[in-house]
Amino acid sequence: MVVSMTSGPALVTNLNQPSFPSSTPKSTWWPVWARETRQDYRNFSIPHRGGCTVLYADGSVKMVEDGNGDGVLNSGFAAIGGFADNTLELHPQSFASVYSLFDRDALQ
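Above: the chain sequence. Below: its structure as tokens.
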């Protein structure tokens, strides 16, 4: 069995997934998906004295701290859905939080 550890990309303001009709031009949907969403990592638990041990794709293992002690790791969301505040704990330099790794412009 495979279990996803993210709830997928969600809007930073309300944790909903953006939705557009299939006829919507890229100039309308792309700015929303690329600039207004983050991956929702709330399913990562904080079992190790205020942090989470993460295995990265390069084989390294690092501790990510729950900086504000709310029990969830925040990748850029507002104070909603269990986040005590908007403290950024999963920094983009070390944790990909874009809607797609294939969209190089969204990674910038």
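The mean pLDDT is 89.
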